[in-house]
Amino acid sequence: MNLRDTIVAAATGNITSALGIIRMSGADAVDIISEVFIPVSEKKFADVAKGGRLYYGRIVNADINAVKSKDNKSQDVNNAKSNDHTVDEVVVSVFKAPHSFTGEDTVEISHHGSPYIQQEIIKLLLSAGARLADKGEFSLRAFLNGKMNLSQAEAVADLIQSDNKSSHDIAMDQLRGGYNSELKSLRQRFLKIASLLELEIDFSAEQEVFVDRDELVNLLTQTKEKLTYLVNSFRQGNAFKNGIPVAIAGKPNSGKSTLMNAILKDERSIVSSVEGTTRDTIEETINVNGVNIRFIDTAGIRESDNEIEKEGIKRSYDAINKAQTVLYLIDSSVDDAESADYQLKFLKQDADLTDKKLILVVNKSDISCLTRQDREKLQQMDAVFVSAKKSDGLEELLKLITADFNVQDVSSKVFVSNIRHYDALKNALDETSAALDITLSGLSSDLISENIRSAMDFIGQITGEITTEDVLTNIFSSFCIGK
Ligand SMILES: Nc1nc2c(ncn2[C@@H]2O[C@H](COP(=O)(O)OP(=O)(O)O)[C@@H](O)[C@H]2O)c(=O)[nH]1
Ligand SMILES: [Mg+2]
User: Fold this and answer.
1) 469 versus 423: which is more confidently predicted?
2) CB–CB of 252/343 below 8 Å?
3) Ligand 2 center from residue 237 Cα (angstroms)
4) Which ligand has the nearest atom to the CA of 385?
5) Ligand 1: does its nearest atom lie under 6 Å from the Cβ of 367?
6) Torsion angles phi and psi, residue 90, rounded to 5
7) How confident is the model at residue 73 (pLDDT cuts 50, 70, 90)?
8) Across-strand partners of 89?
9) Of all protein residues, whose CA lies closest to atom 28 belonging to ligand 1?
10) Is the CB of 389 under 6 A from ligand 1?
């Protein structure tokens, strides 16, 4: 990828709409647009274009133009009217470096929103010297030109993908700096620790311990707490951004599909009284108070020799393992408290439930044959009683699912919602914990320094102060073209 090229791409989707936008960025942007754009003043555009201005005019097919001017003297009667070479009437916005998104000279062409027109204009710009932008290349350039840090560039991608209030709030917050101040203060702490330690190493020949161990332990403990907070915020941050994945599990016929449908008030997944009908998993998202909940209806769990059903059961476990919350349904017309207990034990054996919320849902309460003792026992297991068929108890269930997720928190608290940041923070936390352990055990300070340096590197990776080409390629290639 040559970053000195002038790049072009459609900034709006390939659909018929009122308007579309094409963006072109790079040192030759104005010269290239000048080849195909004639402002109403009919002057050469490159001579008049100023940054921060909009220009109305026509995009013309330059090739035809060239032929026309050659043939001009012959006054060819067949010469088409100038109108015939016009691809579209457009508005061109000019941004001069560094006052643009990318930090380079940039032009944006607002054209009539036909995919055909869009393609034609891009083709003209390509033949005038631009190159088609790679995925995320505009954002990459913005990052490389210091217009935003890496986590802000990622926030642009999140912002475009946000489809509800909480994911939008989180992306917006990250774009506006987010936990940059937290990262800065962490970095400062690490720098302080590192400089204390450097001092000690320099003078170690004299066998003196310069660093007050208590101060060091204090600093490391505080840093560890900060990092732990950020790492733990990911569970919520990720839910706000991507929705809370909720797997609906239980034996066949316990009413999983009926429950999902009742919640969705939709008839998407197959409800049937023949056991094992839902052989695959089905996912549907609903929005409750600004938080997306992604319900995954599973095939149901039981012993089976049937190959297709076995595959369905395997997928059920996959869905459970990936979920953040698991609703485990029992059928209260046949299961009692003991059976519920037995089934949950079975589930815990075969599925990984660490860090997951497990909610026992006692279904079919309309035809339940539970005794009072059963009921009490189930209540002690924090069960929720519902009738999927009658839509009873669903509100309480939804409340329980969203209990840890308060949309109000998004604007007032700091959340980590990006998995790359989460990984980096977790690594920094591990290094800090190791440094603290070494300090407490009174071992040599060179070892601590090493941990602190790599913790600092991990923090630097988040904002992009420390980065490799691989990391950048990886991040920006997940963007779409034109971003
Ligand atoms: N009476 C009653 N029947 C239910 C309830 N929930 C589900 N059923 C019935 O139980 C059967 C199995 O339901 P289904 O949702 O397909 O179960 P799944 O195999 O767990 O997905 C169907 O005949 C449903 O109508 C309920 O709350 N009350
Ligand atoms: Mg089903």
Assistant:
1) 423
2) no
3) 30
4) 1
5) yes
6) -140, 170
7) very low
8) 58
9) 364
10) yes
**Does residue 281 line the site of ligand 1, with CB under 6 A?**
no
Strand-pair category, 244-250 with 291-297: parallel
Q: How is domain 180-239+418-476 classified at the CATH fold level?
A: Four Helix Bundle (Hemerythrin (Met), subunit A) (1.20.120)
Mean pLDDT over 6-22 rounds to 94
- The yes/no answer on whether domain 7-133 falls in CATH 3.30.930.10 is no
Reported as a pLDDT band with limits 50, 70 and 90, residue 205 is low
300 lines ligand 1 (CB under 6 A): yes
Question: What ranges do the domains of the chain cover?
Answer: 7-133, 180-239+418-476, 243-410
Residue 452 Cα to ligand 2 middle (Å): 52
Using a pLDDT cut of 90, give the percent of the chain over it.
Answer: 53
The continuous run of DSSP H or E covering 407 comes out as helix 407-412
pLDDT at 74 over 60: no
Question: What is the model's pTM?
Answer: 0.72
Nearest CA to ligand 1 atom 8: 255
Q: How far are the Cα atoms of 61, 86, 131, 224, 437 from residue 209, in angstroms, in the given order?
A: 76, 79, 60, 23, 18
Please give the pLDDT value at position 481: 75
Does residue 269's CB lie within 6 angstroms of at least one atom of ligand 1? no
User: Tokens 């209540």 appear where?
Assistant: 379
Reduced to 3 DSSP states, what percent helix, strand and coil does the chain have, rounded to the nearest 5?
A: 50, 15, 35
Ligand 1 pocket test: pick from 279, 362, 366, 389 the residue with the most ligand atoms within 8 Å of its Cβ. 389
What is the pLDDT averaged over residues 44-50?
97
Q: How far is the CA of 358 from the centre of ligand 2 (A)?
A: 19
Q: Is 272 in the pocket of ligand 1 (CB under 6 A)?
A: yes
The CATH homologous superfamily for domain 243-410 is P-loop containing nucleotide triphosphate hydrolases (3.40.50.300)
Residues 283-309 have a mean pLDDT of 81
- Percent of the chain surpassing pLDDT 70: 90
7-133 and 243-410, same CATH topology: no
